[in-house]
Amino acid sequence: MNRVLKLVNHTPSQAQIKQLQEDWNANQIIDLPSELALKFSNVPPELIDLKPLALEFLSWIEDQKLQPTEPVWIQGESGLSFLIIQKLLAENYTVIHATTIRNVIEEKGIKKSIFEHLLFRKFQII
Questions:
Q1: How crowded is residue 16: how many other Cβ atoms within 10 Å of its Cβ?
Q2: Separation of alpha carbons 124 and 86, rounded Å
Q3: Which residues pair with 119 in a beta bridge?
Q4: What is the 3-state secondary structure (H, E, C) of 73-119?
Q5: What CA dihedral angle connects 31, 37, 41 and 46, to 10 degrees?
Q6: Sheet holding 95-107, edge to edge
Q7: CA-to-CA distance for 67 and 79, rounded, in angstroms?
């Protein structure tokens, strides 16, 4: 059984949990510690250099001592996420993100978008 490290700002849906269990053999989803979770969800827009912040997350990830089959699920502020993903891929971690299908429903002339989890996709390098 595998762990999944979750660097995401939302609670996983039941569909996401099910897919992590079935397709990624996950029996444990590990959230960021509360202090890091707060930083991940509130990246200051005026912050120019994101490297020191990224290093905090990378240090925590390294401390988890993941196996090659244990993925890191990351979706967040694009600049910070890019730095973390880039480093993890360079070190041969498995890094994934969720994809969704957007369903538009019109009710009484009002369009409403409903997003449905489809799958987890590995980040890749060209």
A1: 21
A2: 9
A3: 99
A4: EEECCHHHHHHHHHHHHHCCCCEEEEEEEEEEEEECCEEEEEEEEEE
A5: -140
A6: 26-31, 2-8, 72-75, 95-107, 110-122
A7: 26
The boundaries of the domain holding residue 41 are: 2-122
pLDDT at 66: 94
- Tell me the pTM: 0.89
Tell me: the pLDDT tens digits for 80-120? 999 999 999 999 999 999 999 988 888 888 988 888 899 99
Secondary structure class of 68 (helix, strand, coil)? coil
Q: Which two tokens stand for residue 23?
A: 């397709």
- Total domains in the chain come to 1
Task: Report residue 50 as tokens.
Answer: 């994101």
